[in-house]
Amino acid sequence: MAAGAAEAAAAVVEVGSAGQFEELLRLRAKSLLVVHFWAPWAPQCAQMNDVMAELAKEHQQVSFVKLEAEAVPEVSEKYEISSVPTFLFFKNSQKIDRLDGAHAPELTKKVQRHASSGSFSPSGSEHPKEDLSLRLKKLTHAAPCMLFMKGTPQEPRCGFSKQMVEILNKHNIQFSSFDIFSDEEVRQGLKTYSSWPTYPQLYVSGELIGGLDIIKELEASKELDTICPKAPKLEERLKVLTNKASVMLFMKGNKQEAKCGFSRQILEILNSTGIEYETFDILEDEEVRQGLKAYSNWPTYPQLYVKGELVGGLDIVKMNLKRKKEKEKQWRHQQLPSLRDVIAQLRGHLTHLSPC
After folding, report:
1. Could you say which of 76, 111, 223, 300 is the most buried, measured as most Cβ atoms within 10 Å of its Cβ?
2. Where is the segment annotated Disordered (predicted)?
């Protein structure tokens, strides 16, 4: 075990200077290089270092590097590292992708994708420009109002993005968002696609409206409310959500990963029944999380709805399941004749038989 741990640790190279980093880029140019910009004071960075060590075991052809962001500021500034953990992906000494935040599943996916893609041309020949343009067109049309920002509405990662979200929320504008930190190809490609060099960028019906300054001007002239679609009232939204599927479960997490014990138990029960159902992660939408408590007059989660009607939480589901099992047991018992009844039927049958 100790030897295995030492081998994994050795597979992740630690860089302490800009010169060492540049030299490593040159030496490892022909392979995929994954660089973790981290900080010793951030616990999430320690977790992601463990993830890197595991990935290093699985992908021995990939070079994994740790670089303390604050200790080598010239490299951090060059690549616009504004938070930790941040991961940069290099091939042929060129940056090809980026991941901001402690997202182990996404890091694993990106490593697998880039490691299996073979040689990479800095010109982007692996993904032709027309393919990227088509993808950007689909993204800008993904919702009537689309915001391309740094971070998410719940956790903006720059002041301009935070201000944009605040303005849209203040005007009750319904919008979806895309975190440009999650996809370097989109981050760079959208600048050319829209001829707009900065973020955030707001699109309505696929057309660029502008950045923060333009939105502020539209707000001041009262045009913003006429351009952007309004969000439905919370009660209307909750009604739509609870009727989204015949069976809807509002929980902490999702089908693949429950984030509390109660949610995990109710998933196990639903999965054991074979019932088709959909889930909604309340941790991703604070408005729904708080609003549904008042809407349903039920203060805790998970909550299970059938055809828009609240069934209850875990205890109610367990109780209903227990009752169902008891009824099934009672029904089976009623279907089985008693021994006395069987003997009586046999005697009656025998008395009617003619003697030989």
Report:
1. 111
2. 110-131
